[in-house]
Amino acid sequence: MLNTSDKAIIHDLAAEVAEVAALPIQEKKRSLWRKLNALKPKRPMVMIDQVCWNEMNVNDELTLRCEDPECRGYENHLRMILYQWRHFRVDMVVEPFIRVHKAVGNSGFGVNVRETTAVTDPTSSVVGHAFVNQFQNDSDLDKIKVPVVSHDEAETARRLAVAHELFDGTLDVREEGADPYLSLWDPVSSWMSVEGVLYALVDRPDFMRELARRIVFGYMSMLNQLEEQGLLCHHQSLVHCTGACTDELPGPDFDPERPRTKDIWMFGLAQMFSTVSPAVFEEFEIDMCMPIFQRFGLVYYGCCDPLDRKMKEVRKIPNVRKISMSPWVDEDLGASQIKGDYVYSRKPTPALLAWDDFSEKEVRANLQATVDTCACHGCPLELILKDISTVRYQPQRLWKWAEIAMQTVGG
User: What is the largest CA-CA distance in the chain?
Assistant: First the structure.
């Protein structure tokens, strides 16, 4: 039973969000994202995500007041939407609905991470990890199990009932399926350590091929189960921190009760392959993951991994539409390889927000260099500021970055 005070708090916040979501600018921003994702941009687009929210609270804008844990989760979500809209909205789209995640269970691959962590700021979720290598022998491959997907229909119904009680009259309630995370090498790095994986690629390539094949098989089975049970998401608003609006999805004969992988975006990445050769990247990432890539309607590829010297391999991915250009790329080289064929998804360095002194001049120069480079090579461009570990407890730095970015792109 939800208490009256919690319901009132959620109602008031949801009403504020609904008011923002009804503004004409929201549809204008959706249109701009659709144009960019169709490779016919009106201007470069800007997003900010993965924020150090522990450093953002100003004037209690993010202070939670609900008592019930479920209500506090919704309250936190709504407060972050409103805070971002007020202070660093850039090209965010505020939706007129609340997503309620289905109670989808996943048994996983059967390998538990063993690690020690290093903490510098106890209020931050960003910590250091030292992973234990649990794949030393051929027999360790048998630790990898095929994921089993399940759905607790009663729990999903309960979640929906709570959401309707909280949001009816303010925001629509939308039942949301799974948006699968399909990185091959991120989980392996946590099972073996990055060093362990890189050494094994050299010393035990056959072992690593078999390990990768088993994970890909597990992912394919997981996706089959999600499709068969009608548990995939659809009509995504975001894909890997960027706007997902497109006229190309969902695919023909779409059934909202049975979304398919070809109806949605996926994102792929191999961050720990930053230092491997293009040949190793092609064999162990692109070719190995090809069965997964081929299933999806559109693909966003890359994250922190520099891809400026691996574009020949990335181009093999079918339906790839956006390609990440991390802070560690040669921007001109990357743009010359992308041209007008894909969205140049630039990740400006968040380090400029973390130095002792914040330099607006450096931020402006950093962003302008990207805009000029992409204009020179005809690249559709988005600027995605993410992985913001700290702003030195000065949230105004982020607000100013947003202002400069929008000035730079002409928004």
Answer: 63
What mean pLDDT comes out for the span 351-362? 98
- The residue written with tokens 């399940």 in the block is 150
Has this prediction a pTM greater than 0.90? yes
Contact 77, 10 (CB under 8 A): no
Element (H, E) at 367: helix 360-377
Helices and strands of the chain, counted as H and E runs: 13, 14
List of domains in the chain: 4-409 (3.20.20.210)
Mean residue pLDDT of the chain comes to 97
**In b/e form, how buried is each residue of 202-233, taking b as 16+ CB within 10 angstroms?**
eebeebbeebbebbbebbbebbebbbebebbb
Render 202-253 in DSSP notation, one character per residue: HH-HHHHHHHHHHHHHHHHHHHHHHHHTT-B--S-SEETTEE---SS-S-TT
Structure token digits, residue 188:
């392996």
Angle formed at CA 391 by CA 268 and CA 30, multiple of 5 degrees? 50
**What length is written for the chain?**
411
DSSP readout, 134-157? ---SGGGGGG-----EEE-HHHHH
Whether the upstream peptide bond of residue 250 has omega within 30° of 0, thus cis, is: yes
